[in-house]
Amino acid sequence: MQPIDPYDFYRVGDLLSDDERQVRDTVAKFVDERVLPNIAEHFEKDEFPREMIPEVAELGLLGCTIDGYDCAGLNYVSYGLMCQELERGDSGLRSFVSVQSSLVMFPIHEYGSEEQKNRWLPALAKGEAIGCFGLTEPDGGSDPGVMKTVAKRDGDDWIINGAKMWITNGCLSDVAVVWAETDEGKRGFLVERGMKGYTTREIKRKFSLRASVTSELFFDNVRVPDANRLPKAEGLAAPLSCLTQARFGIAWGVIGPAIACFNEVLDYSKVRVLFGSPLSHKQAIQMRLADMSRRITTAQLLVMQLGRMKDAGTMHHTQVSLAKWNNCRMAIDICRDARDMLGGSGITVEFSPIRHMLNLESVITYEGTETIHQLIVGGELTGVYAF
Q1: What is the 3-state secondary structure (H, E, C) of 59-126?
Q2: Which residues belong to the active site?
Q3: Which phi and psi angles does 114 have, rounded to 5°?
Q4: 12-125: what fold?
Q5: What is residue 53's predicted lDDT score, i.e. its pLDDT?
Q6: Is the pTM here over 0.90, yes or no?
Q7: For the domain bounded by 131-234, which CATH number is listed?
Q8: To bridge 69 with a disulfide, which of 112, 121, 258, 299 should be the other Cys (CB 3.0-4.6 Å)?
Q9: How many Å apart are CA 125 and CA 188, to the nearest integer?
Q10: Is 262 helix (H, G, I), strand (E, B) or coil?
Q11: Residues 345/272, Cβ–Cβ less than 8 Å
């Protein structure tokens, strides 16, 4: 019998195709060699590692599930594995790729015109253009239906007024996918940097996602041509479909920090001597390590089935909510426990748990809080939505 792999207790890797395994291993190598040696410093300095954008693009990670338009055309299990490995490095890097892929390239591909696709998708795939997703507002987080950003027709143009909040990549972006209320319902627009009246401001003094750019977007009578409206995006269902894409990646991604923290504390337990023997010899430590392994294994199996359903076209959006809810809770609990098991060392950037733990405070909140996903699942089970 083969020995147990502590990081793949149920041999989930055996369920992968050769292509999926190659994607996982390629991104893992990039994270080990390029991300992990530098990411703690970027986190400490509150700066996004912009120098990695060309490298991420060169690996074909941006919009990787799209066929054509210079995109890789990978399946969704491969995309999930990519998110897992990137977030093993840092949630900020995975967030950058998720926004570019799931919240910018996906809506352009799904709801855009052929002209919009040809203009933006190749540039976004190559990292020559950066995008952001403008849905969340200062007064509307969990309830996007109360949108206050408005777009009014003016001849062949639209005039947009309003503001968006907590926008990843906002100050980096060349194009923003902006959702606004119109007389015809909610619609999506491609707002380009340089359009008069469109400004961005970076949100600083964060204690989470410090290796990520988080921004506010402001629209003061921004004139946008109708050619920049996403013609197939009608109603709230369009931006919510984008969130489903992003939540899928998150459900996979957060397994990365959990594995990273589990790895560190498992190694630490074998060398840290307390009361005459290594921590790994203590019953309490073994029980906590076993619980981490149980939670990680459950999460791995959950997203594997989720990915297979998504690739088969049978996945329901509430199944994504269950996975995002379960796996974010799993990851943040493991990171917090790993921080505790490392003792004083756990609060320094020399070890990863405090960084991952702080990042996950944002990840468990964005793209739907834990409570929102519980209510989505509860509503599906009972037929009554109790928001």
Answers
A1: CCCCCCCCEECCEECCCHHHHHHHHHHHHHHCHHHHHHHHHHHHHHHHHHHHHCCHHHHHHHHHHHHC
A2: 367
A3: -65, -35
A4: Butyryl-Coa Dehydrogenase, subunit A; domain 1 (1.10.540)
A5: 97
A6: yes
A7: 2.40.110.10
A8: 121
A9: 21
A10: helix
A11: no
